[in-house]
Structure formats: C-alpha cells, structure tokens
C-alpha cells in the first residue's frame, strides 16, 4: 500500500495542514537551492550540458537560473540544467538521516513547471515543494543505509520520485495519476556513486528532476504504470534495496498512514504525531563533504582568535586535529591537485579556515588549492582519528612559531541540526555565491527568493533569477 | 578494465572486420525493428507519450516512424517514441541467452542521430548498430541471470549502454569520449519488471535509447564520468548485479580482450574466437511471451491439417497440450479479458492458432480475445506441465467431434535459433504489422529497410518510414 499511501497523502495535503516552522524550512530550502543553482550556473558541468543539449531544446518556457530571464528553454531541459547547477559545487542542502540533498531534484522540476504553466502562487509552490521533499526523504529512509552502501547516489534515486510527486501536486493530478507518476519515476533509477568526482555526479539530481517532471506529465496524459511501484516484489524498494533485510516493514514504517503502525510515516501529520523530514534538512556553510565541516568551523574560529590577538597564519608552526574516523576515510587527500580534489582534503579545509577565516567556493578554486601559501599551511596540518568524537565534532590545536597555542573544540559543526545556519548566514552564502553571476542584481534576487511565500505567480520569480 | 575494453573495441571495429552473416543478422534485426516501430506507432503507449511530451519537442530533425516523414521532432524525443513503439506489441527481437530485446534501444537512438546529423551511409549505420548490440548483450551476460531475477528489465538497463556505444561509434568519438558516454549511460538504470503489463514497460527501451543518445552527445561535448563505470566497486555491474557472486570474473569473461582469458569476450573477433551475440538474436513470429510460441506454432500446423482434411475448428471437441512447466507459470491465464491479458494466456494462443492459423497483433486485439467463438475454443483447451519437454517444445492433440485426432509435436518453435524465421516470414510479419499504418506504401517501406546496407544516407530511409 506504500505507493497508494504516498499518492493519497500527497493529493490531500493542504497548505493549512502545515505548521509555520515547516513552511519556514521550505522557504529556507528553496532560498539555499536558488543560490546554489545560480552560483553553479557557470560551472563547466552546467555549460557543457547546456551547449551539448541545445540542439534539442524545445519552446522557451522556463528560465535557466543565473541568466536573469535572458535564457529560456523548454521546461524539461530547464529542470535538468538547473538541477545540475544546484549540485555542482556540493553546496546544496542535506537531509542528515539519509544524506539526500532533497531540494535539487524537487525544486528544479517544480520551478520549471510553475513557469511553463504559469499562474501558481508562492504558496502553491511551497506546498508542492514540501510534498516532494517529504516523499523523497521517506522513501529514502525506507531503503537507507544499505541502498547507499551498495553504491546508489540516493539523492537522485529518490529524487525522481520526489520530483514526480511534487509536480503531480502542483498540477493537481488525481490519486490514480499520482500513483502512475510515482511508477514512471520509480522505474528511472539514476545515480551510481562511482560517478563522484566527475561531472556526472551533478548530472544525477538534474536528471532526477527531469525524469520526475516527465513522469508527472506522462501520468497526466494517461500513461499507466504499476499501482504498487514502490512495494511490489519486483518494485522499487525491493530492487534498489535488495540487500536490506525487512524492507517491507521499513516501507510501512516510513510510508505508513496508520499512527498505530508507525510514528514516522508520511500522512500522519494530521494526527499530530508525524515527523516532517524537511525539519531535519540542513544547509552547508562550506562547499565540500559534510565530514570536513567541523574542521573548517574550528579553523575559522582560530582564524578569528589569531586576528584578535594580532597573530598571522603565516606564523603557524603546526596544526593537530582530532577527527571522527570517517573524516580521514573519506577526505584524507594529502596533496589535492585542484579544486575538486580539495573538497576531499581535510587538510585543505583546515588551511583555508586558518588563512582566510572562511570556506566558500572561492577557497576551492584551482588557483587557491595550488597556491604555495596555502600548500605551506596545508602541509603543516596533521589529523588523527578519534573514535570518541561525534561525526560533526573536532578538536583543533594550532601551535604558533612563538609557542603560543590556540585551541578550539567544536562539538557540533555549524550547519548541523544542533547549530543550524541562521537566516543571516544563509543570506551571506547566497550573496557570496551569486554576486559574480548576478552583479548588482544579487540583493534583489535574494529578496525575491526570501519572499517566495508571497509571490503571486512563481513564474515572475523564476524570470528574475 | 571492462569499460576501457568495451570503448576501445567499439572505436576500433571496422566494417571489414565483420563476417557477412553478422551483417546479415544486423539487417534482419533492423528490418524487424522497423516493422515493430511502425506497427506500434499508433498504440496508446506511443500516442499518449507523443501528445504529453509535445510541449517539449525541439527542432524537427528526426522522423517518427509510421508517420512517413510527416512528423519530425528533435532526435532525443524521436529516439524515445520510436523506442516505445518498437516494444509495445512485445513483438521485437530477443537475444535468447539474456532475453534482452537488443535492437530497440540501439536502433531507436541511432536512426534518430543519423537523420539529425545526416550523411551516414547504411554501412556506417549497420556497423554502429552491431557495435551497440554487442555492447548491451555482453554487459547483460555479465550480470545475467541474477540481475533479471531481482527485478530489473534487462533490455533497458543494458540498452542505455548499448545505445551510448552505438551513437559514440556513429559520431566517431574517441576512446576517452566513448568511455565517458558509457559512464553517463550506465548511471541511468531504467526499468523495473514490476511495470510489465502497463505502458511503462515499453517506456523502458525508449528511455534507454534516449538516455544512451544523450550520454554520447554529452560525452562528445566534454562531459566527464568515471573511467571504470562498469567494473568499479560501486560501478554498474556491482550495483545492479549485487546479488551475483563473482561478477568481476564475469565482466572479464564477457568484456575481455584477451583470448587466453576468455573465448566469449568482446573484442576477440579479430582473433577468430569471438562470439558475436547478434548471431544469437531471434525474431518473434507471434506478439506475445516466447513461452507460448510452441503452442501457437503447433496449433497453426493443426489448423493447416484441418484445412487439408476439410475440417473446421468449430468442430473441435477438446484440445490437450503438453507444455514446459514455465508455460503455465507465466502464461496460465484461463480467462483473459483483453488483448494485453491474452498475451499471458497459453489457452488463447492455442485457440487463435487453431481458428485463424496465425498469431499476429490482429489476433490479440480486444475484440478477438472477447469473441464468443474464440472463447468457446479457448475453454476447450487443456494444458499439462511436462518437465521432460524443452522450453520451446510442445505436443498438441486436438480431438474433433467425430472422434478424429490431429496431433503435432513441435520440438523447437518457429523463431528459435534452431528454427529461425526465414526472410520470407520476416517480410510477411513486416507487411502484416505495417499495412494498416502505411497503406500502399508498405511494400516500398519493406524494400527500403531490406536494402539498408546500400543506403547512401540513412536519413533518406528514416524519412520514408
């Protein structure tokens, strides 16, 4: 019944069913996504895809973000390209329980459809966005963690389903049509982790957006699929979660409609016991793998301490960090050669925090990673695994050449659920990402995105980005 | 090395490397595919997709088959829609070792690209077609049968890879670009078996064609992916074949370049020991699951016997068939309600063979399945599982009301590798499928397709279909 549950819940949810904090989380998710998509709009992964696929572009009905309304293409390709752009700097949001980056596939599809069709208010848009994000996170929870461990990029494998449910909601499809849309989306399983480190990683959420959009449009037209796409013996969960024992029970748990059976299931919100996954969504202060965030946070704090005390990073003698064991496993690259490799180097993360007091996309440009000054500090950083630390915890000790010691203990890195980025930090991140693309239009774009809830027609928002 | 092997083999193969029987198999595969795609062009699965997606169609550069050049759309959507049409009657070809329907994804992508770009000869086309079909069948063999058993529709999960390799070959991509194309295709794993029985089943080969085409176009533009997309720990084979033990050895076996390591690997043809998978491709005489073919064959032969002896099917008293156990497991539907269900009824298969002496799409139309005359005979058919029979074997005994007994023993059903459809049968199948769509243009279309090898520009062929 999981597929039917999901479809009927999605169809029945009303704006008034959602608490204010859920709506606020959706606004923040959209805002962060828009900044990432604008900021990633000039990356080669985006521009190569744009140029290569331009012979196929259909009627110009949907805007490419970062082009300020000057470039419109068909909605399918807009969903693809905005989805690619939003993920390409590894700077998008993270549902920490599943490490799904939920907004990319859903918002990329939704914004394209909203502009193509026209006439949808900000509230229509946010309702559909929330429905889609809940859908992808709930189905992701049902197959997590084995699904990811095997090698699936869970953002896109669940993202097509989330995008399909969201577009179905926006277009007002029936339960039966939404069920078919889920099926057409579920059968398109995009995303192998082996692609990490190449352009194809960011292709994944883009293609998920496009696949989900297509699924909803086909279902609206009467295209049929299975009514048990998620739970059938040879349906989505059993096939992509084949190594997970007891997956039927997990589907019930996360997609249940019955409060007695589950306290986490979708569709339980009206009973007051449901868990909104969007409230567990987090935002990255730094454009790299989340395991490096604690050390950038601590190093940035030490940068502040040095400034206060009139010290200079050039005078650092050595840096010793204690980190969670995953950090060195995933990001232990000692000598990164370029920006992309820098994202997999905890040592680079420490160096930029200490030198610049920040870790933005600028500090991951190739020339920074290759800068002798940065390399000098990077080589002085030593990291030691400590099993007693949490995944978002670190202790960093910098010893200056005069013997002075600066130490910071970060228990929960900024951007975690415990220490979330506040609205001001999100705005600085937006401006920082988008200024080079939008120029003096950046403040206006920021305001438009913050005010998405009050937009009369979301098409007008898309055009201005 | 599997990915690199496949790419470098594909790039190096020349037309002169291929024996005449391989080229002939490719011509027959193309011919059969074109008939299926034209024959399926008016099916709701095709027309709904066409209508629903038309708002996204780009510049009209590629023809929809069955429209005789009157409908051109962008090449991506042409690949999708022709791919859907070619599979929708379950009448396309079958690589029996993997039950991949290999030509749909590859030819649908290739023909669209050939027409879009223009200037490719029939020989260019056939070379790329063969390269693509070998690619998808070899990677399919590496994950078979566990991959299919888990629930993947192997035609499309391998088809995107085959289409990407084929389009890369046609466009003359380098080994490095072809490797990237394989990666972008491999990361798009489309097709759950749960969708069988709905429109989404035929969406699978169409989407595989489109995904493979897109992969090659992106790779040509410089888009990067993994260089070990197929064999990496979290690459295609390990992820989609996660339940298969020893998959690394199977990749070596089927994608090896070294005759000492394997006698089946791709790229061994020049050493004279390679196995061409296209020579193991078969064609369906009947538009239904292959397990019903023996009983239709035997019943059709009995129809001939009745005719010779002046008997009428109306006077059949009872029919008793011995069949392989899989037949009743997969197609034991006693009372099919419509054409689609009829394809899963061995009893309907016997009835149409006995009454009409054939089993073409006409005999699977709803009104035939619901015809009282057909139902009367169908209800008289009894089938018994017999483990001693082969999967393509049956014994059918019809008892007439006057006590006369007619018996046929089919050891290998027509369409099997042992009793292949000859060229005349393929031509009758083509005409039978396409006459209603093409009218009096059907013979000309048949001739154009047979002569594909000698086409100066394949774009001219596409236009005429």
TrEMBL record, chains A, B:
Domain MmgE/PrpD C-terminal: start-end pairs: 286-451
- Give the source's domain of life in one word: Eukaryota
Q: Which Gene3D superfamilies match?
A: 2-methylcitrate dehydratase PrpD
Single GO MF annotation: lyase activity
* Pfam families registered for this protein in UniProt: MmgE_PrpD_C (PF19305), MmgE_PrpD_N (PF03972)
Q: Which residues are in the MmgE/PrpD N-terminal domain? A: 5-241
Q: What InterPro entries does the record tag this protein with? A: MmgE/PrpD_sf, MmgE/PrpD_sf_1, MmgE/PrpD_sf_2, MmgE_PrpD, MmgE_PrpD_C, MmgE_PrpD_N
Belongs to which family?
Belongs to the PrpD family.
By what name is this protein known?
Mmge/prpd family protein-like protein
Q: Which organism is it from?
A: Mollisia scopiformis
Lineage here is: Eukaryota, Fungi, Dikarya, Ascomycota, Pezizomycotina
């Amino acid at each position: 019944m999981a597929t039917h549950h999901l479809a009927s819940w999605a169809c029945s949810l009303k704006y008034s069913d959602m608490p204010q904090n859920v709506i606020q989380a959706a606004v923040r998710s959209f805002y962060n996504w828009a900044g990432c998509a604008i900021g990633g709009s000039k990356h080669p992964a985006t521009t190569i895809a744009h140029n290569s696929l331009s012979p196929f572009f259909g009627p110009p009905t949907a805007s490419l973000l970062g082009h300020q309304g000057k470039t419109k293409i068909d909605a399918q390709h807009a969903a693809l390209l905005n989805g690619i752009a939003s993920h390409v700097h590894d700077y998008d949001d993270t549902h920490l329980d599943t490490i799904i980056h939920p907004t990319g596939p859903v918002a990329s599809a939704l914004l394209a459809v909203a502009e193509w069709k026209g006439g949808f208010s900000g509230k229509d848009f946010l309702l559909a966005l929330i429905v889609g994000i809940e859908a992808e996170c709930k189905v992701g929870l049902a197959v997590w963690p084995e699904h990811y461990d095997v090698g699936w990029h869970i953002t896109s494998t669940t993202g097509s389903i989330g995008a399909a449910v969201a577009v179905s909601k926006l277009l007002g499809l029936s339960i039966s049509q939404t069920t078919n849309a889920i099926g057409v989306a579920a059968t398109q399983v995009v995303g192998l982790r082996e692609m990490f480190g190449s352009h194809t990683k960011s292709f994944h959420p883009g293609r998920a957006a496009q696949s989900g959009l297509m699924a909803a449009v086909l279902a609206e037209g009467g295209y049929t699929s299975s009514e048990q796409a998620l739970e059938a013996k040879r349906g989505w969960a059993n096939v992509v979660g084949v190594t997970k024992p007891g997956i039927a029970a997990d589907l019930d748990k996360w997609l249940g409609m019955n409060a007695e059976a589950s306290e986490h299931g979708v569709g339980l919100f009206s009973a007051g016991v449901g868990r909104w996954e969007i409230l567990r969504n987090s935002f990255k202060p730094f454009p790299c793998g989340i395991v490096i965030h604690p050390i950038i946070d601590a190093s940035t704090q030490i940068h502040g301490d040095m400034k206060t005390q009139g010290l200079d990073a050039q005078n650092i003698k050595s840096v010793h960090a204690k980190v969670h064991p995953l950090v060195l496993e995933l990001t232990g690259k000692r000598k990164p050669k370029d920006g992309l490799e820098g994202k997999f180097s905890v040592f680079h993360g420490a160096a930029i925090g200490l030198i610049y007091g920040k870790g933005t996309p600028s500090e991951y440009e190739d020339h920074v990673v290759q800068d002798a000054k940065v390399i000098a500090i990077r080589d002085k950083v030593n990291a030691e695994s400590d099993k007693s630390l949490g995944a978002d915890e670190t202790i960093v000790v910098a010893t200056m050449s005069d013997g002075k010691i600066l130490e910071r203990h970060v228990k929960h890195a900024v951007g975690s659920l415990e220490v979330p980025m506040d609205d001001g930090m999100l705005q600085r991140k937006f401006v920082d990402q988008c200024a080079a693309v939008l120029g003096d239009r950046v403040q206006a774009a920021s305001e438009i995105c913050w005010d998405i809830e009050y937009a009369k027609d979301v098409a007008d928002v898309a055009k201005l980005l």
